Amino acid sequence: MTAEEPAGGEPAGEEPPAEETAPEGTGADAGASRPEEAPPPGFDHVLRALGGGPIHVSYNNAAHGNINTGSVHGGQAVGDGPAGDRRRATRVHEGPIPQAEVDAAAFGFVEPDAFRTCLGRLRDDGLLFLSGRPGSGRRTTALNLLRRHCGKNAALRALDSVTELDRWRPDDPDARGYLLDGLFPARPLGPGVLGNLRDLLARAGACMVLILPDDDPGLLRTLERDLHISPVPYEPPPPVAVFHQRLAAEVAEEPERSRLLGAVEPGLLDELLVPGVVPHEVVELVSFVVAADGERAALGDVRERLSYRAEERVPPLVDALRDDADGLAFLLSVAVFEGLDHRVVREEAERLLELSEGRLASVLEPTEEGKEPRPNPQFVFRRPLRELLRSVGGRREPREIRAAGGFSSAVEPVVFVRQGQGEAVLRHVWREYGQLSELLVTWLREVDGRDELTEPVARMMGQAASWGGGRTALRHIAHLAASERMTGRLIAARALGIAAEDPVLVTEVRHRLGVWAWGRDRNRRATVAYACGSEFGLGRPERALRLLGTLLRGVHSDIPEETGVLMAVQSALVRLHQAGHEQRVLDQLASWSADMAPDAGPLLSVLPRLLAEPRWFQSELAEQTARAPVIVALIRAALNSADAFEAVCREVLRWCETARWEPTAAAAVEQLLTALADPMEYGTLRLFVEIERSDPQVATGRGIALRALRDWRTGASRTRPGPGPGPSTSTGSEAA
């Protein structure tokens, strides 16, 4: 029994802590000076906040400018699309590893020196312990080891770092390889545990790679002393080899590579590609070279842009601004909101300065006459933008046109010159200046609900959990999870997903989500659902669906206060569907709707959102797979529901209109309508009447609907009783 499914309504094996309540004056919404935000427009707002939602094309208008739209994700991988692309590969921590992640790991990969040794251990023992520095490319190497040993397209699964190996069993008969990224056993590992693990893997015809941190010498000593296991020490490949291999993968033609390298200052690569530089930092350099397109001016001073030198720059940067309240506020604002328009960054810096109530100023207001007054913080010409940017090592990027939220706007992003400077600043001040963390949380938890603000705030809140540590690491997120503002709950959900990237913090994240899911606080329950649709749930789809099932047991759609929880559950299901877990979402939706019948209408109202991305559904229907009857049953139930009919009918009609261009879609529509017609139910009758009224030239399957209606009107078809007519749609008797 998992922590999400405890007996008696509480997590098993643990005394559930009392739900945290923020002390008066320090809670999630304490001191809020702005009115509650207007109700969001629904799913699109939530999906964008969780990283999904409608895809918008972004057009960058930067004359003579160089826009790097890629994003570095660690290891030897770098994204080549916008960081907010909802379909980008998510690093899975629990469950099947998508083929996209495996392929990304293989792209431009350079084998480290120990690669052959690791392959030999996998072949001989089926079990490999790999130790190395976090962030040095261990996971990328592990995925390539599994890919090489198990086969290019073999099914691989990830295990969370808190997996207890003495209880674990291979539960996927198709999986050939397992990856456990970070081993933090609650109970000591013994020879019997490892022997049983080897037997289980051998019987399943699978192997496993366990990634160990080299900063836990106690664990490594235990493995060597008690279990006689010597983990293979991982050292990243030479930076020069990574650079040239990655460049060759990015640019296939040698003459083109030579042209791009012509923009690099002579001797610069020898200076930068030194031992100690890890692969993802080398990939960063490759991305700069490729983006410069052979122009030295566009490449600029790479030394000032590489992230690995960011840490050493922070202390003198903060010291230089110690007597400068404006500079400190602006520094912190750029660190959080790097990449946004300069007006947004300045606005947030101003709000932070106001909230600080003098705490960012080194000179106080004079209390005696004759003393020098401090500069007026309300003076609008206090500091020009160019001086502020120069003081924090930032720059204003060329004008860009960005499309989001249904309209386009011109922005001039403010960014640090040095890559990774923002995170380094925030990490330093959070650790070194204890009272500042409270001010930062107060500032950031009250941001507006705009998507461009909530994403960087959530990232910072999640990262801060690992910067602080201790038993209060997630306290600031827990207070935010109880917020009455939807924006606060969405930020908390994404922050929990980011915090769960830490293999130690993930235990607390999982525990808190389990407790909140069974709790009575509707805001925290909604936060759990949002977390299931954010990074946490997308990386652990099976656990996310179990949590959502727990939430649904306590949802009463007739209670107005519960509608927020239900919408959060629905948004999480859409996100999981978009992330490639369509089959699991469908199976769970069918199971839940059967359990909730005849009150499943509110839950089934999520189905139109899923059908709006029809490729998977149509493929299953056209090929008549084992999932096809489940899809038909769900659509039938939704058509019979007063809550879901209008939207589901609209999506099916759209399928009929667009299917004429695609043979698979046309076959799917015909299979669906044929199955719905036998037996003819009330919702199907209403749908077929709408198809009858549609344009004969564009509606695929219209003939099936017309024949079914004719048989029904003449009494020749098999019918099944259905609910009464909806409030605004033609009934079957009217159609007759």
Automatic annotation (TrEMBL):
<dbReference type="Pfam" id="PF20720">
    <property type="entry name" value="nSTAND3"/>
</dbReference>
<dbReference type="InterPro" id="IPR049050">
    <property type="entry name" value="nSTAND3"/>
</dbReference>
<feature type="region of interest" description="Disordered">
    <location>
        <begin position="67"/>
        <end position="88"/>
    </location>
</feature>
<feature type="compositionally biased region" description="Gly residues">
    <location>
        <begin position="72"/>
        <end position="82"/>
    </location>
</feature>
<feature type="region of interest" description="Disordered">
    <location>
        <begin position="713"/>
        <end position="736"/>
    </location>
</feature>
<protein>
    <recommendedName>
        <fullName>Novel STAND NTPase 3 domain-containing protein</fullName>
    </recommendedName>
</protein>
<feature type="compositionally biased region" description="Low complexity">
    <location>
        <begin position="714"/>
        <end position="736"/>
    </location>
</feature>
<feature type="compositionally biased region" description="Low complexity">
    <location>
        <begin position="23"/>
        <end position="32"/>
    </location>
</feature>
<feature type="region of interest" description="Disordered">
    <location>
        <begin position="1"/>
        <end position="49"/>
    </location>
</feature>
<feature type="domain" description="Novel STAND NTPase 3">
    <location>
        <begin position="109"/>
        <end position="169"/>
    </location>
</feature>
<feature type="compositionally biased region" description="Acidic residues">
    <location>
        <begin position="12"/>
        <end position="22"/>
    </location>
</feature>
